[in-house]
Design brief:
By secondary structure, the protein is an all-alpha fold. The chain has helices at residues 2-10, 17-26, 30-43, 49-55, 61-74, 80-86, 92-105, 111-117, 123-136, 142-149, 159-184.
């Protein structure tokens, strides 16, 4: 059943949407529910949004992960509030995928909560939040981003994750520096 559910997603079978929604809502097997959530994202039909939003509260982290991922693939901003709620999930992988999806949804309402994630206990979550803030141009988080750069606890993160973080944060920090220089020397903005 798991493989059949995935196959429907790979085929992007529009005629299977109602069946997949039913599987996601009712199947007892978490791997089948997870595959249904994934498949609904691959089909990209907004009809699945309500069910995917409900699946963010599923007891299985695999189902929650694929539901959030699929909401990002579909890309409908109606999902923003539900994805924001996933930033409080107990599983760090869920908090990380939620930050990535919030970037895909490109909704500035996420900046405040992403800024709060810069204090998360998990270094990978902090890095993901910083990356998301960089992508969303969360200028209000500049001071927190600078402090996160100086946080020695984050040296446990892989070099590729650190690079991703620095690449996304650099534009915010450059803009903040430019604004500070322009405020200190108003004639700089004329030149």
């Amino acid at each position: 059943r798991d493989q059949a559910t995935r196959a429907l997603g790979q085929l992007k079978s529009e005629s299977a949407i109602n069946a997949l929604i039913n599987v996601l809502r009712t199947d007892k097997d978490e791997s089948v529910r997870s595959s249904a959530a994934w498949a609904l994202g691959e089909i990209r039909n907004p009809m699945a949004i309500r069910t995917l939003i409900s699946a963010i509260k599923d007891s299985s982290s695999y189902v929650r992960y694929n539901a959030i991922r699929s909401l990002g693939v579909i890309g409908d901003k109606r999902a923003t509030r539900a994805v924001l709620s996933a930033l409080e999930d107990r599983d760090p992988k869920i908090r990380i995928i939620a930050t990535e999806v919030l970037v895909e949804l490109n909704d500035s309402r996420a900046v405040r909560q992403l800024t709060q994630l810069l204090d998360d206990m998990e270094p990978a979550v902090r890095m993901a939040a910083a990356w998301a803030l960089g992508k969303l141009r969360g200028g209000r988080a500049t001071l927190k981003l600078i402090n996160a750069l100086n946080d020695r606890k984050d040296f446990t993160i892989s070099s590729s994750m650190r690079r991703k973080y620095l690449d996304s944060v650099a534009p915010i920090l450059r803009r903040a520096y430019k604004d500070e220089v322009n405020e200190a020397h108003p004639f700089n903005s004329i030149m």
